[in-house]
Amino acid sequence: MKEITAEQLAEKIKSGEKVNVVDVREDEEVAQGKIPGAKHIPLGEVPNRLDELDKDKHYYMVCRSGGRSGNATQFLSEKGYDVTNMAGGMLDWKNEVEK
């Protein structure tokens, strides 16, 4: 499974790189703040919302600590998606968030 640190992902965003971030946390967690521009798809809804993800794009998967996003990354990889897990999750995110 491909992984990236929160710091590396923040650098990509700061440098202006177009990134697609999917936050798989639950609603109440996301309400506390998410990476700006991140798409919110709770982990349990991922299998039913595959039509919202483009197989031609690369996605960075995010959760609170990296476990659930790791599960989502593995699931999506098996379905043919290009995905990378953000290790450490939002607990390691030191940059701005949107609410």
From TrEMBL:
Residues 15-98 form the Rhodanese domain. Gene3D superfamilies: Rhodanese-like domain. It holds the Pfam family Rhodanese. InterPro entries: GlpE_sulfurtransferase, Rhodanese-like_dom, Rhodanese-like_dom_sf. PROSITE patterns: RHODANESE_3 (PS50206). This is Rhodanese-like domain-containing protein.
